[in-house]
């Protein structure tokens, strides 16, 4: 199953490489990974999406918790949560396609953030499957470049990950 | 407040941490530190001949005492030479602080002379590592390093120090922190009382209980509690390779080691148990054999300080995260207070069954199939001559298994070997580390002619510091453990498991200033060994010729259940 694991860790040099190293060393899978500082500049928040059996996910959270630089770990998919990913996608846009892309972007609530006579760049946020759907709708033939941030997420309601 | 340089602060911090010996080897990046070492008399430095040996010495000191050992190695090749030793400690959860020199911070990343990214290279085999960025941080980093290495599930910690952090001219206020708090690291200090109650209820109700105790009992200083609980319950106890000595080896309730080369009775008891109380053991693949066939009728209670060890390979029915000492102590109290008692009839018939298994194999080996001495005979003799009370530091191979099976350890911390990584070359430096710290105890390196040559250069360190340990080399002229697998799985195609051109170990020992002894016949063994151990102030190298065709038995059949074993070359369960 796909899991979104959120990690609060010390904002220290080397902390990220310990987390990433753990995944490769223990043969855990990484689908996407994002990391950035939080409102507390001594802490970073890392979100990783991974796929694994319950046993593997249990090991992932336990092994992450063991890292000295890791302060807290939560598997967001265990409860209600929101998840978002941002994508920028550069598309060949000439002739009829210009209108077509604009229409599709509107349906997906995307924004066109860069325009040239031959290209459009669309920015889109949402859950990963929405971004996948957008890519699929437009078709590979028109896509020039895709960049995605990877998933970030939070628990719904009062629940927070903090120290 | 006292003003010290970074190098001086490091040495002073070690002293304040109570460190008596450090094991190391100098180099460019360490020159300031070595100069600071030279100018004091509190911390004694031991100069090894290869950095790997420094780490094994520090590691073995830790295994014998429970306190972190310290190694000091230079940047680049010094640091990479230490990696095997760090990995060895990591796999067996041994506390150790390894200080590595680094090129000047201004040169890092420029492929400077003797630069290696030691934090990166060692990352998968350390509990944690620090890179010193400001000299003022040295005391607190050393404090943290020891705290992390020794607490919770112990492990090695690397402290990487760029040369400019130790400049003799840059001086700072020195104060060693009394205690340290880390917001992201709080090892558990006690087990969950509800879970402990549940566990006690289960052990009191069990009909076929086995206590499976591992290295965590040794690491956690819990053998007294383990022994008390087992005896209250009249339960059979089996130890892992790492747990030997955690329960007295000559006691009736001890049924031997379990696993790949475990005793017949231990593996049979595990397979037929209805309840397994696992304490400080990590269900290693050398123990469980085929996980899908593991102990089909047993419920499992698993006590471990590291939650990640629980349900990693075998699912626990009752997980208890906590230090073995605390949890076992609680269990003892609850058992004593309980009105419920283990059902006597069930316990008696369980013991009757186990005793039957005991007589079936019981560590039997043949002595009539070869003219040569048997390695098992040598270990039994060693046990006799040393009264079963020596520190036995082993290398890796068949000799290690024979030592584990035939030397009966009655005390914890006396069986010192590399189990998880299985590092050939561990034995000699390990024995050195123990003997230096316990000069009045018998300390033995049990080794093979293959393993001993992996750190043989340390015979020189032994002469320099006069470390009168004893080497018992079970010389079978082959990489016996490899050869055994080739015999059993590759139709005896002995691909490169034969040792040609062995040195004359007697002359070699003598060349380093030691005593060498060769023994070829069993009739001569006792006298020779007694003589060797009588030489209290000499290191004696006993080169003992043993049967090159001997195998270690029992041996589990790969991917089978616990009870699927070869009992001899011809006999299978
Ligand atoms: C040639 C060879 C053959 C081998 N054959 C065998 C064999 O037949 N049988 C065998 O058993 N092994 C064998 N081994 C060793 C094997 O590879 C493992 O090293 C060993 O089984 C692990 O022992 P353990 O489970 O006690 O765990 P250890 O590695 O000792 O780990 C200790 C466990 O205890 C926990 N712990 C630490 N401190 C505490 C505490 N205070 N309280 C509670 N828990 C704590 C840790 O978290 C960890 O889970 C062999 C090795 C070699 C090299
Ligand atoms: C550094 C290292 N290299 C290789 C091995 C694989 N290995 C395990 S046992 C063994 C043979 C050991 O030979 P020896 O020391 O003579 O002991 P014996 O088995 O003959 O008693 C080998 C090569 C190892 N454990 N460690
Ligand atoms: Mg050999």
From TrEMBL, chain A:
It is an enzyme of class 2 (transferase). It holds the Pfam family ACT_AHAS_ss. Signal peptide: none annotated. One of its GO terms (biological process) is L-valine biosynthetic process. GO terms for molecular function: acetolactate synthase activity; acetolactate synthase regulator activity. Pathway: Amino-acid biosynthesis; L-valine biosynthesis; L-valine from pyruvate: step 1/4; Amino-acid biosynthesis; L-isoleucine biosynthesis; L-isoleucine from 2-oxobutanoate: step 1/4. It comes from the Bacteria. The keyword Amino-acid biosynthesis applies. It catalyses: 2 pyruvate + H(+) = (2S)-2-acetolactate + CO2. One of its GO terms (cellular component) is cytosol. Catalyzes the conversion of 2 pyruvate molecules into acetolactate in the first common step of the biosynthetic pathway of the branched-amino acids such as leucine, isoleucine, and valine. Dimer of large and small chains. NCBIfam families: acolac_sm, PRK11895.1. This is Acetolactate synthase small subunit. The lineage of its organism: Bacteria, Pseudomonadati, Pseudomonadota, Gammaproteobacteria, Oceanospirillales. The gene is ilvN.
């Amino acid at each position: 199953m796909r899991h979104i694991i959120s990690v609060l860790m010390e904002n220290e040099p080397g902390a990220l490489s310990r987390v990433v190293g753990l995944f490769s060393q223990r043969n855990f899978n990484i689908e996407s990974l994002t990391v950035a500082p939080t409102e507390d500049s001594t802490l970073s928040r890392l979100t990783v999406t991974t796929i694994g059996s319950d046993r593997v996910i249990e090991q992932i959270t336990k092994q992450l918790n063991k890292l000295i630089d890791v302060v807290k770990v939560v598997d967001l998919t265990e409860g209600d949560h929101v998840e978002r990913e941002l994508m920028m996608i550069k598309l060949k846009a000439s002739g009829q396609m210009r209108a077509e892309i604009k229409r599709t972007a509107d349906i997906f609530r995307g924004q066109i953030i860069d325009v040239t006579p031959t290209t459009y760049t669309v920015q889109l946020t949402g859950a990963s499957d929405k971004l996948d759907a957008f890519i699929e709708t437009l078709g590979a033939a028109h896509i020039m470049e895709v960049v995605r941030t990877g998933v970030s997420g939070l628990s719904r309601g009062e629940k927070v990950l903090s120290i | 407040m006292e003003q010290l340089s970074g190098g001086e602060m490091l040495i002073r911090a070690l002293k304040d941490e109570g460190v008596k010996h450090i094991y190391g080897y100098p180099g460019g990046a360490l020159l300031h530190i070595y100069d600071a070492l030279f100018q004091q008399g509190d911390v004694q430095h031991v100069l090894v001949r290869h950095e790997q040996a420094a780490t094994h010495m520090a590691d073995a000191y830790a295994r014998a005492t429970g306190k972190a050992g310290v190694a000091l190695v230079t940047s680049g090749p010094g640091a990479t030479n230490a990696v095997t030793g760090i990995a060895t400690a990591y796999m067996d959860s041994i506390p150790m602080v390894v200080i590595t020199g680094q090129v000047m911070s201004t040169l890092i990343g420029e492929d400077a002379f003797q630069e290696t990214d030691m934090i990166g290279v060692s990352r998968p085999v350390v509990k944690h590592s620090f890179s010193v960025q400001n000299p003022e941080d040295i005391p607190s980093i050393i404090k943290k390093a020891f705290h992390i290495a020794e607490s919770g599930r112990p492990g090695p910690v690397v402290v990487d120090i760029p040369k400019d952090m130790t400049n003799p001219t840059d001086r700072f206020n020195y104060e060693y922190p009394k205690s340290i708090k880390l917001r992201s690291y709080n090892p558990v200090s006690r087990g969950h009382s509800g879970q402990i109650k549940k566990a006690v209820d289960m052990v009191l109700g069990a009909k076929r209980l086995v206590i499976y105790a591992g290295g965590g009992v040794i690491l956690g200083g819990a053998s007294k509690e383990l022994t008390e609980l087992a005896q209250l319950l009249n339960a059979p106890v089996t130890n892992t390779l790492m747990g030997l000595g955690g329960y007295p080896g000559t006691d009736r309730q001890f049924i031997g080691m379990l696993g790949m080369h475990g005793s017949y009775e231990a593996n049979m008891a595990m397979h037929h148990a209805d309840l397994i109380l696992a304490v400080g053991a990590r269900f290693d693949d050398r123990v469980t054999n085929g996980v899908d066939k593991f102990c089909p009728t047993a419920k499992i209670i698993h006590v471990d300080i590291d939650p990640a060890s629980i349900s990693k390979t075998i699912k626990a029915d009752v997980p208890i995260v906590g230090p073995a000492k605390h949890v076992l102590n609680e269990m003892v109290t609850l058992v004593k207070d309980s009105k419920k008692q283990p059902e006597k009839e069930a316990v008696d018939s369980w013991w009757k069954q186990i005793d039957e298994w005991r007589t079936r194999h019981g560590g039997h080996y043949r002595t009539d199939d070869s003219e040569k001495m048997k390695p098992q005979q040598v270990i039994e003799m060693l046990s006799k001559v040393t009264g079963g009370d020596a520190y036995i530091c082993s290398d890796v191979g068949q000799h290690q298994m024979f030592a584990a099976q035939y030397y009966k350890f009655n005390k914890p911390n006396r069986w010192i070997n590399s189990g998880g990584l299985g590092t050939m070359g561990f034995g000699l430096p390990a024995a050195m580390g123990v003997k230096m710290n316990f000069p009045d105890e018998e300390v033995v390196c049990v080794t093979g002619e293959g393993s001993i040559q992996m750190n043989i250069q340390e015979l020189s360190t032994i002469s320099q510091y006069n470390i009168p340990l004893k080497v018992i080399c079970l010389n079978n002229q082959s990489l016996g453990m490899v050869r055994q697998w080739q015999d059993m799985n590759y139709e005896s195609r002995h691909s490169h498991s034969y040792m040609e051109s062995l040195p004359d170990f007697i002359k070699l020992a003598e060349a380093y200033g030691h005593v060498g002894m060769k023994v070829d016949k069993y009739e001569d063994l006792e006298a020779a060994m007694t003589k060797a151990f009588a030489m209290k102030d000499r290191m004696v190298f006993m080169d003992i010729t043993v049967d090159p065709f001997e195998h270690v038995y029992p041996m589990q059949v790969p991917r089978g259940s616990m009870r699927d074993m070869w009992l001899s070359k011809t006999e299978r369960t």
